[in-house]
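Below is the data:
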Amino acid sequence: MSGRLIVLATVLAMTGPLVLAQSRRPPSPAGASAAEIGGKMTPTSGGEPVYTRGKWIEVTYGRPIKRGRDVFGSGASYGKVANPDAPVWRAGANVSTQLKTEVALVINGKTVPPGTYTMFIDLKPNNWTLIVSRWKAQADYDPNNKTEIWGAYDYTPDKDVVRAPMKLETLPHSHEELSWEFLDVTDAGGTLAIMWDKTMASVPFKAGT
């Protein structure tokens, strides 16, 4: 084999697995966002701050990408791109969006005890409602599993912990990839927000005991 062919074979051997891995990349990558209530970075005389652990709040979800779509639509088609055939929106992609909290959260006047929950959004024009639910999320889709949920396809409201109206805002820039974020967090609470395209919807929360 000539030197040129040897080089070509080597390049193909090295890049082949990378190309294959890229072709198998999910169209909606997994994501997570977290905040820490009561966590502290305290300065010291030595210059290195001392970290004090607080209590964590985390949202895990799939991150759909806009890819040129009108993701929320309008009129009779409102919400059908983001959520074509489920009773509510999973507020993400693939697996159900999950809220994991080590601290009690007070949302819309109701207490969400520490634990793991699923989250959904009831999408209506200019009227979004956040839903925190006791439905457990399936790790992998199983149509025979009726005690856990995949996405929002079999959602029912009997396991709702709280429903809360969301504040809707128009953003100055289009967010290509859906993102959950924690805003204005203090030891007393903060705001939980979802952003996609030019829409941000948010709900305030207080940190309980």
User: Anything to note?
Assistant: The radius of gyration is 21 Å.
